[in-house]
Amino acid sequence: MPTPKLNYYLWRGIDSKGQKKRGKVVALCQTQVLEYLCEQNIDVRLILKQPLPFNKRIQERFNKQDITRLSRQWSSMIDAGLPITTSLKLIANTSAKAGITALIWQIRQKLEAGLSVTQALKQSSDHFDPIFLAIVNAGEKTGRLAESLERIASHREKLEYIRSKALTAAIYPCLVLGTALLVTILMLTQVIPELEQMFSNHNAPLPWFTQQVIYLSQATQNYGPYIGITITLTIWLILHGYHHSRRCREWLDSVKVHLPYIGNLHNLTCFTQFCRTLATCCDSGLPITPSLHASVQTCESTYYQKMIDVVTEEVNSGQALHIAMRQSGVFPQFMMQMIMLGEESGRLTDMLHRIANEYERELEKTIERMSQAFEPIMIVILGTIVSSLVIAMYLPIFNLVSVMG
């Protein structure tokens, strides 16, 4: 369920020494405020609710990293022997964000009402995904909740690391190309028109290269806004279709898989996510079929999601995992061989971790190689564009100087 909205609560009361006190608290509801003030030995006389400003709401809300941090802290405290609700209370007292404090308060309320940890998490926020809930549920049933929470935190950190690596590989080329495009547009629309005016006053013939650049400048000024709108609209339609149309997303994901360089990076990311999630779920005591279902949730490609669903159906019918993956025809030979060894030796979880580690290392090397290759290419592209425009504008000046000389 979605987390309820936070609000400001203005309060007035009297402390244990009989002095009047007032203040404001960011909380979910009045009950949470009353509990907080009761712990401070405040006798509450008045509570007023006020909407939380948008910027404050953004500042106080929690994210995926906060959930990961909560899992690790909770695991450490439970492992140290603290009761579940007491450990949550201690974490809430040290939390810097009102959003995570409110979430922990919700979980505590549901646990104290008699719900299991899995049910309390599920009913508190949709940030606890099916994988999170499945591993926690397995930990509850086996009495290894602290171990399960630690495993979840490690798993989420590794997945986030993979995503950040893939994102880093995409950011640098986009920034350089964006800079090159911006510089080109500024020169074509601001600098070259001024120089063109200067050249026209001398009535001197212009070199062919300069004429072409001037034509490009005029075309940019006349049709640039329409081209920009068309490109923006096209990008918006692609992104909208990717996020709102299953068929469009499947087609784009299938194209992405076969692209040079980008496709290899995308495949490595998906294989790492799949093996890491499957290993974590199996390590937590989940059967192979629920583990495969959970692995689908972390795979960001609908193309591979469909393939994993096919593999899951084959495994359900009694087929060995490595055979089902071989029949799909999309998984690499190395992965299938390692999984086959793991199934035959009874060490599937260990082999899946090894596969994930190997693909993670390969992903890092691929990103490093791409960065090293892209950097000189981008510099050459940017330098060529700028130098070409500068040369085109200085050629007539050199001609004029030679004529005047």
Automatic annotation (TrEMBL):
**Record's superkingdom?**
Bacteria
In what residue span(s) does the Type II secretion system protein GspF domain sit?
Answer: 71-193, 274-396
Membrane topology of this protein: Multi-pass membrane protein
InterPro entries recorded for this chain? Answer: GspF/PilC, T2SS_GspF_dom, T2SS_GspF_sf
Q: Which UniProt keywords apply?
A: Cell inner membrane, Cell membrane, Membrane, Transmembrane, Transmembrane helix
State which residue ranges cross the membrane: 166-192, 223-242, 377-397
**Compartments where found:** Cell inner membrane
The keyword Cell membrane appears for this protein: yes
Which family does the similarity line name?
Belongs to the GSP F family.
Q: What's the protein name?
A: Type II secretion system protein F
Q: What species is given as this protein's source? A: Vibrio zhanjiangensis
Q: Which gene encodes it?
A: pilC
